[in-house]
Write a structure and sequence with these properties.
By secondary structure, this protein is mainly α. It is built from two helices and no strands. It is rod-shaped, with a radius of gyration of 15 Å.
Length: 60
Amino acid sequence: MNDKMENKAEELKGRAKEALGNATGNEQWQGEGKADQAKGALKQAGDKVKDAVDGMRNKD
């Protein structure tokens, strides 16, 4: 699986974990889910920056 797919999967895993935590009242899962989402989103943002830089390099 490539990095972009792994990062999106991590974000989705976080959403599921947070939802499960919300449904069960488990604050640890809620927190872990939010952290996983943030981590996945941050990695996705980094991928977008990398793609933009690569795109600018390829223009030359």
